[in-house]
Fold this protein.
Amino acid sequence: MIDRPILARKLLAPPPVENIAQLKELFETFFSFSLPSVKQGEGDNGRIEKVDYQESEQRIYINNEKYFEGIAPEVWNYHIGRYQVL
């Protein structure tokens, strides 16, 4: 009974990090996905006029000026049931 409050206090504190580089590598391994980035050319057109995937460039164009970059073919072709996710 006496040891439990001490144990609870120890569990509330994060464990010490002995090797920060190894911890960063662990995070990069488990969270190795990245969100696609939005790129744009000249102009201020923010409208979705078309949705066109270019597999060779791994881009989804939403108009002639803006696109999402870094979309793997596996992500573009992913379906849940009969619905395409992207």
